[in-house]
Amino acid sequence: MTRTSDGPTATTATDRPAIGATAGDADSPEALRARVAGLLERSRARSIALTDAVDEADLLAQHSPLMSPLVWDLAHIGSQEELWLVRDVGGREPLRPDIDGLYDAFRHSRASRTGLPLLGPAQTRTYVAEVREKALDALGRSPLRGRRLEHEAFAFGMIVQHEQQHDETMLATHQLRAGAPVLHAPAPPAPPARRAAPREVLVPAGGFTQGTSTEPWALDNERPAHGVELPAYWIDAHPVTNGEYAEFIAAGGYEDPRWWSEAGWAHRVAEGLVAPQFWQRDGGTGEWWRRRFGVVERVPADEPVVHVCFHEAAAYARWAGKRLPSEAEWEKAARFDPASGRSRRYPWGDDAPTEAHANLGQRHLRPAPVGAYPAGASPLGVEQLLGDVWEWCDSGWHPYPGFESFPYKEYSEVFFGGDYKVLRGGSFGTDESAIRTTFRNWDLPIRRQIFSGFRCARDAAPAEAERTGQGQVS
Questions:
Q1: Domains of the chain, each with CATH number or no CATH
Q2: Distance (Å, rounded) from C-alpha 284 to C-alpha 405?
Q3: CA pair distance 189, 41, nearest whole angstrom
Q4: Which neighbouring-strand residues pair with 346?
């Protein structure tokens, strides 16, 4: 997963290399090496910016029991890179076999990691730099063909995605830390002037291809591609906004158990939930304010709501007379093209994301107002499916038919079943190299320190379900 539940600056290059998953399959080994080197450099620049932004005390501190110290994340990034690129692909002797256990996410809970004999900040920076030097040497010597782990630079793409996933985790830690702002970025774009966008889009009944068997860097849980049949349904054209969610609060949504599942109501009561995380009401005016990366500001009504757990999202949906979409419904709305009958790589087509398509890569430190990315719409007219906020789906975390664990069971397989819920689409903190319409994230339904939001869906009435074509809007 994006390791938002465990291990997923504003530094973005103007001319970014295309990600391997969108163009690597047609590249020569030399061109692919250059692309991968650029992606490794970009991910490391983000890691360094996120850790250099704070002093040594903040790097070593645990800002929440749900998160690791920032210095642990940085060393873990280096440890995984050493295991896969230096030792496996490169065939080199271990640099620091003595620290393998310290940075094993399964061996130590996040809450316990400050008690470990971790590398200090200076040692960590030296270690990750040494690992990167040897990883680039392995990149230069690998044929990038043949062996499955190296074919189309899969191992390197896996490590790029892993680092970017932990960068998003570190960004979430920054949101949890107290103190003055240390991260800065421009505001996201305002929506362009145009006719009012629809509130809902009708997705026609029928089959579509879910998952992938061709994306070179797709992770095991995204595979294999398989057909799914769905009845017609409506889905929101945009994520639910702060303003819409505030109406739920004002209507007593947090005090009325009718809207909550039994587990959700028990969690709401036990935790005293009254609003999204980081929201506070002004006692004098009644206005909602929020803390965002150290900045206290009025809650903007037109942005997608963020930092809500699955239970809150599901309760809002019931209050609104709707429900959360299933994972398959979300993916069909995001990539199915009724004109061609095929599933696209991205909502807008097969080309890599640009600044016109989606709010990704920590380019902005907040979700963009709804309607800000009309160029990123899916063929059916559903917008802001990638970036802005991870979207909760009402689906458990399970493998696809024909799933095969690769290259290790601990990435996906050990998490299947249980209480996890699926999230889709990425957030403003997700890098473009670590997101696509097939990418699957998961977390516990009580988590809300992640950049999570949602959109709603509802069943289509029989008469509506008979409509065909490019989808209907309301």
A1: 20-176 (1.20.120.450), 193-474 (3.90.1580.10)
A2: 55
A3: 27
A4: 349
Q: Which pair of tokens denotes residue 313? A: 């999202």
CA nearest neighbour of 106 among 464, 410, 430: 410
Residue-wise pLDDT for 37-51, tens only, equals 999 999 999 999 999
Which string of DSSP letters, residue by residue, matches 214-266?
S-TT--GGG-S-EEEEE--EEEESSPPBHHHHHHHHHTTTTT-GGGS-HHHHH
- The angle subtended at Cα 172 by Cα 15 and Cα 221, nearest 5°, is 75
Question: What average pLDDT score do residues 303-319 get?
Answer: 98
Q: Which residues pair with 228 in a beta bridge?
A: 208
**Average pLDDT, integer, range 89-116:** 93
Tokens of 59: 């790097």
Distance CA 88, CA 83 (A): 6
In the DSSP assignment, the letter for residue 86 is I
Strands (E), 283-416: 288-292, 295-298, 336-337, 342-343, 390-396
pTM for the complete prediction?
0.93
Query: Taking 70 as the threshold, does the pLDDT of residue 355 lie above it?
Result: yes
Which segments of 106-248 are extended strands (E)?
200-203, 206-210, 226-230, 233-236
